[in-house]
Amino acid sequence: MTQTKIHFYSNPNSGPSSLILHKTEWDRLTRQRNPQEERDDNYLQDLIEQSQAWLKNWSDTVEGCVAKADQKREQQRIKQLATIKEFANRNVGKNNAEVIQRARQQIFEESCYGKKLVSALLESRDQEEREAQINLKKEIKQKQMELELKKAKTVTFCTFDLDKDEDTVKEKRKSIEIENSKTNKEMFEKQKEQEAKSNEKRKQGELKDAQLMKRLLELEDEAAIYKEHQDTEIMKINYNTTKQLQLEQKKQFDDFIEKYNKKGEHRAAKRERRNKEKTKQDRKNNKTIAEFNKSMAEAANQWKGINKRYCDRQSAATSPYFQPQRRLIAELRRREKEPSPWSGSETLDLQFFKNAERTLSECKNKITARRVINVST
Fold first, then answer.
1. How far apart are CA 366 and CA 116, in angstroms?
2. Measured in whole angstroms, how far is the alpha carbon of residue 339 from the centre of its chain?
3. pLDDT per residue over 252-277, tens digit each?
4. Is 118 exposed, middle or buried (0-12, 13-18, 19+ CB in 10 A)?
5. pLDDT tens, 14-32?
6. What is the spatial distance between Cα 302 and Cα 292, in angstroms, rounded to a whole number?
7. Distance CA 314, CA 305 (A)
């Protein structure tokens, strides 16, 4: 039970007295007029919300169907987004490869040897087309000669054979008519078969069009129903809440990434400072070691000089005079035997050689090359 802070104000002029309360205290008193009823209302409201949440998990209710449809739609949206991202990444890699290949092809075509090879290819194609035209003219001429010979044979058959034997002429005419009738019959059957096939194709096309129209009408009805369902107040509220939730999640993710980046930068700066200090310390240590080695070497040289002073001059072994020169020559020969380092021009020469070889393989009438390209250099 909370205590209420009440201030009593008495009027000194024998007027009406009054009680002074804070606004929050007054609101609390008004809320606690009937606390049992308020608790009952809150309990009933909790029960209603719990039952509404349970209804969303039932398959035979409207809320359950709506929740299931929303879940299915969300899964489809996630799949579509994954497909779009995969397609975009694949297109990016494909576009990069196409740009590189196009640039190499342009370098090849703009070079002097590339232009010569392309001109040789065009000349070879022109010669091939010219030869094909000559062969076509020969075939047309030969067919015309054969037709003229057939006409001459039919004319001689009509003029001379009628005079020789009328019966043989009739038999030949009859055989010709039979062959013509057979040919006409075959042509009629083929034409009839083609008409039947065309009618069958037309019927199948009409059937497919009817099925497609039926499906379109069904889709339009479904779209209208879906649109009516989407325009409801519940769907708008769900859409707004989902959008707000996504924005909050995105903001949380961005904040997390920003904090992680700041921590990473701090760690990197700290690591860099530590490495610099370590490098300085290593330099100091190396300097002291070098000074110690130098002093030891000087002491050793002085000791050798002392020994030489006390030894006979013939017993002192002189240092070789040509040893540094021989060492430099051996190092030069070793570097000459090593393979040459990689250079970007080698790949361009190899690409140029491949394009030239492909172009020359397509040329029928090749032009003798005036210069040999060395790919190894």
1. 11
2. 38
3. 888 888 888 888 888 888 888 888 88
4. middle
5. 666 677 777 888 877 777 6
6. 15
7. 15
